[in-house]
Design a protein that fits this description.
The complex is a heterodimer. Chain A is mainly α. Chain A has six helices and no strands. Chain A has one domain. Chain B is of the alpha+beta class. Chain B has a single domain (about 10-60), classed as lambda repressor-like DNA-binding domains (434 Repressor (Amino-terminal Domain), Orthogonal Bundle). Chain B has helices at about 10-15, 20-25, 30-40, 45-55, 60-65, and strands spanning about 5, 65-70. Chain B has a two-stranded antiparallel ribbon with strand order 1-2. Chain B is globular. The N and C termini of chain B lie close together (about 10 Å). Classes of the chains: A mainly alpha, B alpha+beta. The interface between A and B is medium-sized, with 20 and 26 residues.
Chain lengths: ~160, ~70
């Protein structure tokens, strides 16, 4: 890990990354809930433990995210750094939210035709958990992909 | 008319012997923002474009230009 001082704007980018990873872990909690409806009794215990593990990890990440914001992003700059469209991270976060919203909306149209049907194999809660899983994972994976490191992050390109 | 935003930020950085991080700190954005603008992955806001031009003391058209693409 490079040992150079980071600006508040760089810390804001890290904060955005932490949010996306936290939301990804939350999506895994819902993945475990969805899996609990599908797996047999022999795997149920592992799915339950996985869910508890993801929940613990999500709590740690959430606290880390809050700590990062309070520690490294000065109060006077916070609104500008975290909500301005001038930042690549913020622009990609908004794009990821938009993509997640579109996918979730389409899924909800589909789910609304399945809920409250006598012939449905799964209970209504299953379909809602699937929607939440898809919504959270679409956002987080979208942002993580768009914020991936590329060759422009290599120091030899960065330096003159 | 299809156009693409081109920029010469890396040229001005080289002339001033600056890294992306140095320029980012001067402008008040993150290094990732500067690097994605340079490679064309991110279109900067008008404010950022003007801040960059103001920092290098040149008109914004000297740094950013529109190129037609087929």
């Amino acid at each position: 890990m490079e040992n150079k001082s980071r600006s508040s704007a760089d810390h804001a980018d890290i904060h955005r990354r932490l949010i996306s990873i936290t939301i990804l872990v939350f999506s895994l909690i819902y993945a475990a809930k969805v899996a609990s409806y599908i797996v047999g009794n022999e795997l149920m215990q592992y799915v339950t433990y996985a869910g508890y593990g993801f929940a613990g990890l999500a709590l740690v990440l959430m606290l880390t995210t809050i700590y990062w914001k309070l520690k490294f992003i000065p109060g006077k700059d916070r609104y500008q750094l975290l909500y301005s469209e001038d930042s690549y991270a913020n622009a990609m976060m908004n794009k990821s939210f938009k993509n997640s919203w579109m996918v979730t909306l389409l899924l909800l149209f589909l789910v609304s035709s399945l809920i409250n049907k006598q012939s449905s194999v799964f209970p209504d809660q299953f379909y809602l958990d699937v929607c939440v899983f898809i919504m959270l994972s679409t956002f987080s994976l979208n942002f993580i992909f768009m914020f991936r490191g590329d060759k422009e992050d290599l120091t030899e390109r960065d330096m003159v | 008319m299809n156009v693409k935003l081109e920029n010469r930020i890396h040229v001005f950085r080289a002339e001033h012997r600056m890294s992306q991080s140095d320029l980012a700190n001067e402008i008040g954005v993150s290094r990732k923002t500067i690097s994605t603008i340079e490679v064309g992955r991110f279109v900067p806001s008008t404010v950022i474009a003007l801040k960059i031009a103001q920092y290098f003391k040149v008109p914004v058209e000297d740094i950013f230009s529109l190129e037609e693409i087929s």
